[in-house]
Amino acid sequence: MRRCWTLLGVMVLSAIPAASARAEHAKIQLDVSTRGDQVTAFVDQTPPEWGKNPRPVLKARTNESIRIQVMFTNVYPHKTLENVVVHFFIVREGKAGQKEIPELKDDVVQESAFDLDFKPGGKAGLRTTLKIDTPGAYLVRVESRNTHSDHEHFAAIDLVVTDPKAP
Hints:
Blueprint lengths: L1 H20 L4 E8 L4 E5 L1 E3 L10 E5 L4 E9 L6 E13 L14 E11 L4 E8 L5 E10 L6 E11 L5
Parallel strand pairs: 4-10
Antiparallel strand pairs: 1-2, 1-5, 3-10, 5-8, 6-7, 6-9, 9-10
């Protein structure tokens, strides 16, 4: 019995440095919805740039109202994150689920960013509604930048827009 407790104690103590070495600093929730459906993406992290989890997919029709809500939260209990950039964008991509993040050039549908200090538990978010008139696959993504960490956080959804009039 004593050997079991010793082994358990070693296992618990060995897990503590690993958890503290890569402490999480952000919680992100991204909700994208249409009149008939909604998907939610939660925080993922880089590297790699495309993250570790597959992105949820939402289907919409051309010119349909698409509602987007983002919430970014500092989850450090005692640390202020200073000068953090929260970057949000929607950009056309080659296909849903592709790993490469498209360059933010001519195919950007919407983009915004804000630079804030996040006190412990501090939150910031955005809401927007838009319509996309061109069928295709689009990446909806919100990401942290400049958190002074060895990794950044993001949440992303693939939005597939179809033309209901197409054959």
